[in-house]
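can u do me a favor
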């Protein structure tokens, strides 16, 4: 094959087509007409001698060959962009970039508001697209479709870059009318009804098995190590919902302390230290090695780190 005869724009077309899996959406993203995009797909099929995308009941589905090509094309284009782009620093004041950040409910409540506040001053045209853990796979991050993931991770691909933003401990949130407030200890804690809340990692969640203590998280694993167990009435993946449920007079929510402190102005609840020691956990940010040297991404990482340090000292 004569590389000099290959139109590099076709690789850009293929990258967007495989991401969008829709000719119209791909054309709109590239700012070209749908017929031009369709013609590009026809040329790509001839170039690779493969259909690449096949129309099915679920829409345009990539062939096995296309799935193999997708990460290679994405990597190639990112390397090409890095090679030819001016090495100027990212101009935050002028940029209209959209940063896509997967943030857990916990990170979205604690970190993102402060980050957005700084962004509106330092980069007023920049926008954030906040995605949930269920919206994103490790493959999305690896291929650079998502700029950053911020969450607690039990495991992560070794190829990812990562940084710990802070350590957080736990606090108990309960109604001011909860009778155990008068004598809040391990015994009364265990006699209460509890709200469970957690969502680590990424991907589609599954139902909780109350018998699987190891998967219930820090609080329940700690209790199990003591030979104890709490009675969980509600399982949720949303920390703000857990804090609201704790307003009911017979429920206790054991939450990360940074999130619990968001309820300080809520005169319907009290915040108490847990009546037993729970190990702290790490909030991390992680990103693809494909974005490691991107100037805009380096700027974002620095801003997130500085914001987290400010919150960690508060």
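np, heres the sequence
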């Amino acid at each position: 094959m004569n590389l000099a005869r290959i139109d590099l724009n076709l690789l850009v077309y293929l990258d967007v087509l495989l991401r969008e899996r829709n000719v119209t959406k791909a054309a709109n993203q590239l700012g070209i007409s749908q017929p031009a995009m369709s013609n590009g797909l026809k040329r790509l099929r001839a170039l690779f001698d493969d259909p690449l995308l096949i129309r099915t009941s679920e829409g345009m589905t990539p062939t096995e060959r296309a799935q193999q090509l997708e990460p290679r094309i994405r990597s190639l284009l990112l390397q090409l962009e890095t090679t030819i782009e001016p090495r100027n620093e990212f101009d935050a004041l002028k940029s209209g970039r959209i940063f896509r950040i997967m943030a857990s409910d916990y990170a979205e409540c604690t970190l993102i508001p402060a980050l957005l506040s700084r962004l509106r001053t330092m980069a007023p045209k920049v926008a954030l697209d906040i995605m949930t853990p269920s919206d994103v796979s490790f493959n999305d991050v690896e291929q650079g479709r998502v700029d950053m993931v911020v969450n607690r991770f039990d495991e992560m691909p070794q190829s990812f870059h990562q940084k710990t933003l802070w350590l957080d401990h736990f606090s108990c949130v309960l109604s001011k009318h909860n009778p155990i407030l008068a004598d809040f200890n391990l015994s009364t804690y265990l006699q209460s009804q509890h709200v469970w809340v957690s969502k680590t990692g990424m991907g589609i969640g599954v139902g909780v098995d109350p018998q699987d203590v190891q998967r219930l998280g820090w609080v329940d694993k700690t209790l199990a190590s003591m030979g104890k167990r709490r009675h969980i009435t509600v399982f949720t993946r949303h920390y703000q919902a857990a804090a609201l449920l704790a307003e009911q007079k017979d429920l206790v929510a054991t939450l990360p302390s940074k999130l619990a402190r968001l309820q300080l102005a809520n005169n319907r609840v009290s915040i108490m230290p847990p009546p037993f020691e729970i190990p702290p956990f790490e909030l991390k940010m992680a990103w693809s090695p494909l974005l490691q040297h991107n100037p805009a991404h380096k700027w974002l990482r620095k801003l997130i780190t500085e914001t987290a340090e400010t919150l960690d000292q508060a």
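The mean pLDDT is 87. hope that helps!!
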